[in-house]
Each structure stands twice: as structure tokens, then as C-alpha cells.
Write a structure and sequence with these properties.
The protein is mainly α. The chain contains eleven helices and no strands. The termini are far apart.
């Protein structure tokens, strides 16, 4: 009977299309999340140096504390997801990220700004962890690699156009307007996310419940870490290091916000 159930699930997976409304909506949400990040990433250290008159090391902290907070938040989110609804955690992360971003331009001190960056890292880490988890549940198994590839292209697209938008807005209008555009971009995620809600929560339960009852005594052992993941993880680390160095060069060379406005 289990074999028949497995065959039925595989047949349904083969008939399920990849480009569903839910998949497109979640991909757009991921794109908007990273676009909002990239628009501010390229101009943020320059704004900090000009506004608070700090050195290069202090200016680099606005990026470092954000990254560290996002990493820690991702580990915590992965554990919390076992007990709390993914949608609730996602909404909480998006709200935290949007709220802290709205307060960037009114921060009265460098320490306050660092606190806001930590809060934004927590919210961003939560949202950027849950969105791929949600999209992996609606991609057909036989097209998982293809679907994740298309989904991941949203970050590359945001990375390619976000800094250009941010620098141009910074030059023409200033940091306040840039933060407002970033905030609006984050808020657009909420109505788009609403389109991805239907049929996502109840579908996997009906398919996996009979099998889960049978294999439960066997599946209690904790799975071992797959060491084959170490190589792609290491490649991703090297890629991220080179990417961040490109942003650090102008600020270590004495680049000021006045050079943008010139």
C-alpha cells in the first residue's frame, strides 16, 4: 500500500507545474527583499562617514554587524521553525526589517545606527531563511534543482541593479529618500506574499502522513551532517569575500559621500 501511495505522490509531482502563482510570488518576494538590501549596501558606509564623522573601521561596522546578526538569526530561525509557524516567523522578520530601515535616517548617534543595523540583520536573516524553505515545499521534486536555480536568480538580479539604483538615488535625492524607497520596496513584499498563501500549508500533510506513521520508529535518529556540502559552502564563502572586498575598497581609499554628490 505504501508503494502505491509513493507512486501516486510521484505521479502528482510530475503533473504539478513549476511556474505556479505561489512560486512566482515567493520568487518576487525574495527579489524585493534582496533589492532593498542592495540599494542601501553600496552607499551606507559613505553616509555613515559623512554624517557621524567616523573612520573607515567604524564605517565598516555597519555592514559587519548586519552580516553577523543575519548569520546568527538564520541559525536561530532554523531551530524555531520546528515549533512556530513559518508564516508567522516570516511576517515577524519582514516587520522587524521594515521598521528598523524606516529609522535609519533619524538615528541620532552612531551607536543607535549600529543597533538598528543589528535589528535589520535579525529581520533579514529570518525572512531570507524562511522564504527558500517555503518555496522548496511547492517545487515539484523532479524539478527541484531547476526551481531552486530560478529562485536563486532573483538574488543575482537584485545584486546587479540594486547598487546602481542606490547610488543614483543617493546622488540625486539623498539618503532619506533612499531609505524611503528601500522601505517601500520592503512593504511591497506583504501584498505579494499574500498571493502565495493558498494550498501551501495543507498539501504536504495529506501526502506524508501515512508514510510518517510507518517510518517514525526508524526516523528518530538524528541525521549526520553531509560532508559533501563542505565544498560548495567553501566556494560560497570565497565568492562572498571577494564580493565584499569590492565594496570595501572605495571606503578604505578615503571615499566620501561628497564624491557621490559632486
Amino acid at each position: 500500500m505504501l508503494i502505491g501511495d509513493d507512486a501516486k505522490v510521484q505521479q502528482e509531482q510530475q503533473q504539478t507545474p513549476l511556474w505556479t502563482r505561489q512560486f512566482i510570488a515567493l520568487t518576487i518576494c525574495f527579489f524585493l527583499l534582496f533589492l532593498s538590501l542592495q540599494m542601501l549596501l553600496s552607499s551606507f558606509p559613505a553616509y555613515v562617514k559623512d554624517e557621524f564623522h567616523v573612520g573607515n573601521i567604524q564605517a565598516s561596522l555597519v555592514t559587519s554587524v548586519f552580516a553577523l546578526a543575519a548569520i546568527i538569526s538564520r541559525f536561530a530561525t532554523a531551530a524555531i521553525m520546528q515549533y512556530v509557524s513559518r508564516m508567522k516567523l516570516l511576517l515577524a522578520g519582514l516587520i522587524v526589517a521594515a521598521a528598523t530601515k524606516a529609522l535609519y535616517s533619524v538615528a541620532s548617534s552612531f551607536a543607535t545606527l549600529l543597533s538598528l543595523r543589528i535589528g535589520y540583520g535579525i529581520g533579514f536573516g529570518m525572512a531570507s531563511t524562511i522564504l527558500p524553505t517555503l518555496v522548496s515545499r511547492i517545487i515539484p521534486l523532479r524539478r527541484m534543482g531547476e526551481g531552486i536555480g530560478y529562485f536563486g536568480l532573483s538574488t543575482s538580479l537584485a545584486m546587479s541593479i540594486g547598487p546602481s539604483i542606490g547610488l543614483n538615488v543617493m546622488k540625486q535625492a539623498g539618503f532619506l529618500q533612499l531609505t524611503m524607497i528601500g522601505l517601500i520596496t520592503s512593504l511591497v513584499i506583504f501584498p505579494v506574499l499574500w498571493l502565495s498563501r493558498s494550498k501551501r500549508e495543507q498539501a504536504p500533510v495529506e501526502q506524508t502522513e501515512p508514510i510518517r506513521q510507518v517510518v517514525l520508529p526508524i526516523a528518530r535518529t538524528k541525521p549526520e551532517f553531509n560532508r559533501r556540502l563542505l565544498f560548495p559552502v567553501l566556494l560560497n564563502v570565497f565568492l562572498s569575500i571577494t564580493y565584499n572586498i569590492l565594496f570595501a575598497i572605495p571606503y578604505c581609499s578615503g571615499f566620501e559621500i561628497r564624491s557621490i554628490q559632486a
